[in-house]
Structure formats: structure tokens, C-alpha cells
Amino acid sequence: MIASRLQNIREQLLPGVTLVAVSKTRSSDEIMEAYNAGQRVFGENRAQEMAAKFEELPKDIQWHIIGHLQRNKVKFIAPFVHLVHSVDSFRLLKEINKEAAHHNRTIPVLLQYHIAREDSKYGLKEPVPSFLTDGSMDAVKNVEICGVMGMATFTDDEALIREEFRKLRGIFEQLKQGVMCGNEAFREISMGMSADFLLAQHEGSTMVRVGSDIFGERNYT
Ligand SMILES: *Cc1c(COP(=O)(O)O)cnc(C)c1O
Q1: Residue-wise pLDDT tens digits, 118-163
Q2: What's the rounded Cα separation, in Å, for the pair 215 and 20?
Q3: To test ligand 1's pocket by mutation, which of 193, 201, 208, 214 has the most ligand atoms within 8 angstroms of CB?
Q4: Contact by Cβ (8 Å): 150, 191
Q5: How many Å lie between the centroid of ligand 1 and the Cα of residue 182?
Q6: What pTM did the predictor assign?
């Protein structure tokens, strides 16, 4: 079941788009079904849940954290996390940098932007946050900013979703041509979930985060 749903998604992906299988709340057996069907990139929204799954599951899985990350949880994932999608403050970036240095590594991250209509505590609102331009980045050499991430409003209004994805794409282009200019690593736009990943790809997504279309409906998030 999971393998055939996965195959169905893969057939709809544009070339070069990375599929992050969102496995939050899913059991190791469910994850292994996807793994055995060739999936290696998985996304979780809770640090400790992800760390427990990392311990138990094959070591060639690339674990992405996609949900809000509290600073005091960074330590649980710092040794192994492949990509943090949800950096929305310099304080969090500094903490990730500190833990990355502690483990003698560089942690790739995305900047999360607030693009939805909905009120949310999370996500940057300024397209170019001051920490990118005021020299603060010199102090965080163990993180690498690889792109942007955002979530569209939960709605049936396709025009609104499209507008929000375009906004994120616009922010990406602004950074790419501005403060991130010449930075080869800065190339990812993480947008699109089960309900809207086709639209997101159309608007330039390079990374889609799909959960329920692969694993079935969740009882909770
Ligand atoms: C849960 C979650 C997803 C996946 O949602 P589905 O609707 O199950 O595809 C994607 N991104 C984030 C940030 C999530 O928390």
C-alpha cells in the first residue's frame, strides 16, 4: 500500500524535485515499508521522535526536521540531521551552530518564511532578515543556509495558495540575487505538501514534503 502510494507520487514529481516523506507519528514498520520501496529522505516535526527513529532505523536514511524546532531540542538531532527546514530566528541559528561545532560538522538549514494568511508564531516575515546583512553570519560558520521553506494557507482557494508559493519563490530569488549571490549551496525551495505539491512544483518548488498521500491520513499532527 505505502509502496504503491509512493510510486504514484514519484510519477508526479518534476525532474530534480526531492521528495521528503513526512513520517511524523508513523511507526518504524511503516517507515521501513517506504524505505524498502527505495525512499531515503524522511521528515519529522519532533526532535526526540526523530532521534529515536534515527537510532532504530537504517543509517543511510537522511532525516529532515520540518517542524518548529525549540532551541533546547537541537542537541538531540545535531549529530545526524541532514537538513533543518525551520530556521526562523538568529537565536535558533546560533544554537544549531553551537551544536554543529560541538559535533565537528556543518548543518545545512533552510530559512522558514511566514507566507500564509493564517496567524502563526513561526516563520520570518522580513524577506531579508537583518542577521543576513549585519555581519552576524560571520559568527555561525557551522551552519550553511541552503534555501527557503514555507507553508501555504490551509484552504481550497488555489489562487491564494499559488500567490503564497509565488511570494516564497520571490523571496528566494531576491536572496539569490542579493545577499546569497554566488552561493552555490543556496538552491532549495521547500514548499508543497500532500494537498498542494503539484501547485508548488509548478511555482518552482525543489523539495516537496508529503505525508498523508504516502502513509494515509494521520490521527493527529
Ligand atoms: C505534516 C507536515 C507536512 C506533511 O503534511 P501532509 O498533508 O500529511 O502531506 C509537510 N510539512 C510540514 C511542515 C508538516 O508539519
Answers
A1: 777 799 999 999 999 999 999 999 999 999 999 999 999 999 999 9
A2: 12
A3: 193
A4: yes
A5: 31
A6: 0.97
